[in-house]
Amino acid sequence: MSRARITLDAEARARLAAAYPQALSPAPTQRLRVIAIIAMLAGIAVFSFWRLDFNLDRIGSGLAQLGHFLTLMVPPDPGTQLPLYIHALGETLAIAFLGTLLGAVVAFPFGFLAAKNVIPNIFAHFAVRRLLDTVRGVDRLIWALIFVTVVGLGPFAGILAIATASFAELGKLFSEAVEALDRKPVEGIVSTGGSDVEAVRFGMLPQVLPVLASQLLYYFESNARQSTIVGIVGAGGLGLHLAEQIRVLEWQKVSFLILMMLAMVATIDFISSRLRFSIIGKTRLEP
Amino acid sequence: MAHAVTRLPDAQLAPMLAAYEAAVRERRRHTLIAAAVVAVCIALAAWMGEVKPGVLFANAGRLISYFASIVPTLRWETLGADLAEWYWNLDHWLKLLLDTILIAYLGTLIGAIGAFLLCFLACANLVRSPLIRLTARRFLEFCRTVPELVFALLFVVAFGLGPMPGVLALAIHTMGALGKLFAEVVENIDMKPVEGGVAAGASWPKMVRFAVVPQVTSNFASYGLLRFEINVREASIMGFVGAGGIGQDLVEAIRKFYYSDVSAILLLIIATVMIIDLATEQVRHRLLGVGGRA
User: Fold this and answer.
1) What is the per-residue burial (b if ≥16 Cβ within 10 Å, else e) of A144-173?
2) Phi-psi region of A193 (alpha: psi -120 to 50; beta: other; left: phi over 0)
3) Which of A48, A218, B51, B59 yields a CA-CA distance of 20 to 30 A from B168?
4) Given CB atoms, is A245 within the 8 Å cutoff of chain B?
5) Closest by Cα among A92, A141, A103 to A257
6) ipTM of the assembly?
7) Contact B254 A155 (CB under 8 A)
8) How many residue pairs bridge chain A and chain B with CB atoms within 8 Å of each other?
9) pTM of the model
């Protein structure tokens, strides 16, 4: 099948160009702006390459090394350490679960304290918000490192690190959920003589709980990923073994551990997205 | 003013009450089951995670005293000298901070370019062949599921210590994360320009260039900036495994108990992250504003 093609003659072309000048040659200022932005991005990139010591020799030899490691990684094989790794997997799950839960329990009251419609005092509100911001500015791996020096090596430090980081992030999300809720149930309770506490319990909680639960599950998913790496600084779980095996160049064990991680994350994502869906689905039906 | 409340006769009320009671009982049963499941999980996790409440309470004091000791001694009379002592190594730290930001920048840029090239292949509305689409998707998924730090550990062994493995690790993870977001943007575009391009005889690359890219650029840039924010945080910990940036000095300060250095570096990182958050937020709002107008 041949396609018929319309070819414009010179006259039609000129007419079109006169009718739509923008389409054929965009305004020079706009073109200049695009070129300037690209030049700036490229300029910073070149400066970074120079400042961070990139050179082709190292990239080439590194890639060759990496390819060699990849061939050594197949087939994945845990050797005789499978029970140890299963135990580490359990530790990782425990860190993610308890860390998220502990963080959420602490974040829960802060979610209300940082919400404008619960605490009208602007200073208290501001102070709580800045506290959450500061804690959030520190990565969870830094917290892990600090907790390792305080409570010693092991999964407990990991739990505390995940809990601290989740606390700050969930606190912010919770307060946003509380601020977004509907005033009417609260007014209804106050108008029938309910106290402030009762207004929070019966007017606010039933509205925010499903939202909080779904955020909590979402954080559990993301913390399951994070808890695999807190081990790199000695806070228990799979990361500890992974870092160790990479250092002693046991590539088959490394690939096995990475596969375990991927399988765990995929399983948790599957379960938790199912749960999340059922929770959110229910709230959509309720009103 | 008194309200008149009409009350139904008891015979009519009884079945309603019974239904209400049954509904409440049902709900309570569900809550109890959920609570029991959570309690079992907590017990299991506490056993696996070697959580001992005794240890927690014994360590609570140490935790507080740790944070007390990283706070530097600042006296009002000698404020300048105290500050100078606290930030004795400021020049060096600022250089490392610059490195950290550049690592994040390069990682974001390289990752975004990779994501840009791959995202069009992962879209159901542009690519008919399921083989190409699924391969692209699985590849992006792999890149974002393996944590950056694991890539960094691997690359440090392959490429040697320094910022280069950090940049590459961030780039790969960024490619996976941005590739997914970009693909979602592309799947939501208006298909009319695409049809127009195909009808006029455009090849696949030309169709993408003239029908798709103009629709998605502002969203892509916004996601890229958001990722840059995240990558600055990530770059600050790359030094933990020897992949450059300020993390190296932080890890040393924490391990060797140089208390005031810990707080000094932490504050520098927090300030940098906050400034970059604010700056990118400004740019992003402007970008989306422009995108909305166009």
Assistant:
1) bbbbbbbbeebbbbbbbbbbbbbbbbbbbb
2) left
3) A218
4) no
5) A92
6) 0.79
7) no
8) 171
9) 0.81
